[in-house]
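dumping the sequnces here before i forget
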Amino acid sequence: MSGSSSFFTSSLGRKYVMGITGIFLITFLIVHAGINALIFIDNTGALFNSAAHFMATNWVIRSMELVLFLGIILHIVQAVILTRQNKQARPQEYAYANANANSLWYSRSMGLLGTLILIFLIIHLGHFWVKARFGIPEGIPEGMNGEHDMFFEMKEVFSNLWVVVVYVLAMVSLAYHLLHGFQSSFQSLGLNHHKYTPAIKKIGIWYSIVISVVFALMPLYVYFFLKN
Amino acid sequence: MSGNMNLTLKVWRQKNGNDKGQLVNYPVKDVSPDMSFLEMFDVLNEELVQKGDEPIAFDHDCREGICGACSMFIDGRPHGPKEGITTCQLHMRSFKDGDTIVVEPWRAKAFPVVKDLVVDRSAFDRIMASGGFVSVNTGNAQDANNILVSKVDADQAFEAAACIGCGACVATCKNASAMLFVSAKVSQLALLPQGQPERMARVENMVAQMDKEGFGNCTNTGACEVECPKGISLENIARMNRDYLSASLT
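..and the predicted 3d for all of it:
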């Protein structure tokens, strides 16, 4: 009726964008965690390296990489706009608000958790993606098959205890962000039904824990068991 | 009387919309546990008037939990520590002797403070008005049995219509969002056959007005559902989101 421009600038339209990009990023994490988990199956890293090579060279995946960056940027931009509007909606705070009586702390801290994840993401892209794509500050060494030896690089990065600590703490932030974000994205898309919502909430809890634990185990496993 | 309490109230006093306002301490003595929270304010106000002070302005009307006027943010929660009630239904037995109770007005840009604990909630009225009218056939009233409504839909519409527009959802939401209120008002008609002709226009106009009034956005914390004195469900917000998408696509 009113056209799409007002939809995307409306409060509900922006929430749709948050929900859709959120679910898209949730599916991305499954792929990422799945490939990471290959190091637990084959600790020579050959399987992991060939998966990483496929992800870096397949044109479908490369195209999706652009969509992924677009999704992340949209998610962040909308979050910033929504947060600013939310702050403006209450210019004067309460002297005393007992928010814990009616909501969970992490559901109220999505902006903070998201910011921590963004800081981690920048560090993480610097560790692997920027090196692999652009060779900055130096490229990834080549393995036996002439592919990038991402497995070797990973062992290098995770030989530093502080890096491991930062990665594990970031995964704690991710877990809480997902705990609220998973079920919240369905609600924002209008997908709330007494038959399915309890299942969505349960899957969301399992998803958030499993994904974050798989991610966090990788640097820990490498640091303690797989040094170069 | 035995069992009566001595309390300290910290009440927000603000002369008018331009005044900065501040919390002021009021000791209240010999409070009966059987009093309602508003009755305690009546007693305190009588004392203030007798002393020649300005009584505390607060909204109230029916005093039986159906009008939604009594907007007080008590000890960090709208309508106080109990769930499923308004301030007039809150009794002093919910507190204990020696307690300090903080009482503030609803805080939202869209609900400007008029005086003390009174806020202007006419933003809600404008959202309701933007929803427009419901088409009905003129002429003889038709047989009610001609319009079939399932029991499930009738119940859900009724539950949504139980919203009294008190504004507790806005008051408690960390974003001062009015989604629960607006979604209840959208749902009460969207679920019934009589609401279908204007269903899409209604949701679009009401959401547009809600955004224009300067309410915040929904982050699905669920605080509104917990604090709603009438137990309005978050399912209404999801329904509003669905309807809004359909309305935008058609």
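The domain at 8-88+105-225 of chain A is CATH 1.20.1300.10 (3 helical TM bundles of succinate and fumarate reductases).
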